[in-house]
Design a protein that fits this description.
two-stranded antiparallel sheet, elongated, six-stranded mixed β-sheet
Length: 191
């Protein structure tokens, strides 16, 4: 009986390449699955001590002139959005905010209240005019509103329920679809 013969070097290389390709393929499939099922990196539900508590007051002169307050929106879902004209992600999310403002199923309108942070009122007005924003915004010149909300980076948003409680803190650019989905989840939980 003779000893088993070794496969020629070319066959061994082929087998090694085939197993390596299979391993790379499996890793790629796993990576694609993980990336496809995770929340988008641009919208991250962030921790905040405000969640579950009454939203801090926001009162100020709007860019269009009249005084606006968060309390005036009681009974509606409100997205409080901190932004600046120099913020690229803020520019990306502006059309999404406009869609969200008018997208609620059944015609139940939401509100958006913009808070300009780390920028001049004139630049904020120009920014919103260029982007076609139709919601009220106030300038937070001294940073008091941002401090009350714990805002450090932009964009940052807070969803306030009809009772005036903060139900979510969002870091990064938002999308209308994700905001609608988040509110529907909150409504189904009884918020």
């Amino acid at each position: 009986m003779s000893a088993p013969t070794k496969a020629p070097p070319l066959v061994r290389r082929f087998r090694t390449a085939r197993w390596s390709a299979l391993g790379v393929g499996i890793v790629t499939i796993v990576l694609i699955s993980v990336l496809a099922t995770r929340q988008p990196a641009n919208m991250i539900i962030a921790s905040s001590p405000l969640v579950g508590r009454p939203a801090p007051a926001i009162v100020g002169k709007s860019f269009s002139g009249p005084t606006v307050s968060l309390g005036a929106f009681r009974g509606k879902w409100v997205l409080v959005n901190f932004f600046a004209s120099w913020c690229d992600a803020c520019r990306v999310e502006e059309p999404q905010l406009e869609t969200f403002l008018y997208s609620r199923p059944g015609g139940a309108r939401t509100e958006v209240l913009g808070v300009l942070f780390g920028d001049t009122a004139s630049d904020g007005r120009s920014f919103q005019r260029q982007e076609g924003a139709t919601w009220a915004s106030v300038a937070d010149g001294g940073g008091t509103i941002a401090s009350n909300y714990g805002v450090g980076s932009l964009p940052r948003s807070f969803i306030v329920d009809p009772a005036g409680r903060v139900v979510a803190s969002i870091s990064g650019a938002v999308t209308a679809t994700d905001l609608d989905r988040w509110i529907e989840q909150q409504q189904s939980r009884g918020s």
